[in-house]
Design a protein that fits this description.
The protein is an alpha+beta fold and 417 residues long. The protein folds into two domains: 271 residues, Aminopeptidase (3-Layer(aba) Sandwich); 108 residues, Alpha-Beta Plaits (2-Layer Sandwich), CATH 3.30.70.360. Helix 5 crosses helix 6. The protein is elongated and about 80 Å long.
Length: 417
């Protein structure tokens, strides 16, 4: 099925067709599930316990989950397991909808003044590392998936609870794509926390229809060593790397009517290890967020042109961060507002929340980039809001978690027929 095709039996624009109100998710069970998820520490590369929990939860409800192994032996030496489950519809011509959420969090932050995995609830907020990013979204898609098992759907629903989204390479969703697990999918919903990381201020309920991409410059600067008492007799690679960092910080970047502007951010300069020697080597790492229309080749050419304009005495090699596979790139993407899945989600928002959704675009990157760009799936981010993500005091709004679960389940019924 092509991206712009209307699915057979599609009711995305029919406001009277959706999830039976009697099948709405149970709010208490949804938040109980969220608490259990938050209470399992799951920093990236340490997800075995939570993967087992998700598998067991789905298995106990008769959903026949499977482990999908993720292995990266060369750079990270990582071994882990995604959890995958499918609800099969009877119509081979109906679309397949992917529901994707990650099980991992950032490393536990030390500044918490309580247990970072407490799952404490106060004033409609549930606290814990990863509560918002994205165990709230994970709980929402798990309960939505469970609810959809009781619906007569024409098409399939594929649930993927993935590892290592927060790590350096997004290995879980990368492996789904490389192993062909999502090849038969027609569109995707990712329940990342949307409003807190949107390009513009939006409030839930919100649909985020795209995201900027990200390339990671890894630049080698080679100067000339000399005695530190006579720096003018050498070429200081650290100084030259600093000049290049400042120039790249001011680089003219692309603009997009939906995604806004790209950006650059120098992150690290490494070089010099002797007490009285001019550094002859330096390494510069720079974050480059890009918009649709900016390619990897464009980014390389921009940096090389900047080097030439500076007239540096050093030799400079512009490269990009080493990755397990050349295809592992966070490319930008935009999903058409007229796509049937967007229509389904908009009508579901009206049915569940009694309001029109806000529309926005994500400012950073994640697994949705792999799906929206690499896998070429129309991808929408629909997630609960909160605050302090990746920091002490992280929380998610519990009402948002329940609402997202209901919107996702309702939209699946509309989209799949």
């Amino acid at each position: 099925m092509t991206d712009d095709a209307t699915p057979r039996g599609d009711r995305s624009d029919d406001s009277d067709f959706g999830l039976d109100s009697a099948l709405r998710v149970d709010p208490d069970e949804t938040i109980d599930l969220l608490q259990e998820l938050v209470r399992i520490p799951s920093p990236y590369f340490e997800e075995a316990e939570i993967s087992e929990f998700v598998y067991g939860w789905l298995d106990a409800r008769g959903h026949d989950p499977e482990y999908h192994h993720v292995s990266e032996p060369d750079i990270t030496e990582y071994e882990g397991d995604n959890v995958v489950a499918r609800l099969a519809g009877p119509d081979p011509d109906a679309p397949t909808l992917l529901l994707n959420a990650h099980v991992d969090t950032v490393k536990l932050v030390e500044d918490w003044d309580e247990d970072p995995c407490s799952g404490r609830i106060e004033d409609g907020k549930l606290y814990g590392q990863g509560a918002c990013d994205m165990k709230g979204g994970l709980a929402a898609v798990m309960t939505a998936f469970d609810t959809l098992a009781d619906c007569d759907l024409a098409g399939d629903v594929l649930l993927t609870a993935v590892v290592d989204e927060e790590g350096p390479y997004g290995l879980g969703t990368d492996r789904l794509i490389r192993d062909g697990v999502v090849d038969d999918c027609d569109a995707a919903i990712v329940t990342e926390p949307g409003p807190i990381l949107a390009q513009e201020d939006v409030e839930n309920p919100a649909l985020l229809l795209g995201a900027r991409g990200r390339y990671f410059y890894d630049i080698e600067v080679r100067g000339e060593a000399a005695h530190g008492s006579k720096p003018d007799t050498g070429v200081n690679a650290v100084v030259e790397a600093g000049r290049l960092a400042a120039a790249l910080d001011d680089l003219d970047v692309g603009d997009h009517p939906k995604l806004g502007s790209g950006s650059t951010c120098p992150l690290k300069i490494e070089g010099g290890n002797q007490t009285l020697s001019v550094p002859e080597r330096a390494r510069l790492m720079v974050d480059r967020h890009v918009v649709v229309g900016e390619t990897l080749e464009d980014a390389r050419a921009d940096a090389e042109r900047t080097v030439e304009e500076l007239g540096l005495e050093s030799e400079v090699d512009v490269g990009f961060r080493e990755a397990p596979d050349e295809g592992i790139r966070y490319g930008p993407y935009v999903t058409d507002e007229d796509h049937p899945l967007v229509g389904a989600l908009a009508n579901s928002t009206r049915a569940v929340a009694d309001t029109d959704p806000a529309y926005g675009y994500f400012s950073s990157v994640g697994d949705f980039n792999y799906l929206g760009d690499r896998a070429a799936l129309p991808t929408v981010i629909v997630g609960p809001d909160g605050e302090n993500i990746h920091a002490a005091g992280e929380f998610v709004f519990t009402d948002d978690v329940v609402q997202v679960a209901d919107i996702v389940a309702d939209a699946a019924v509309r989209y799949l027929g």
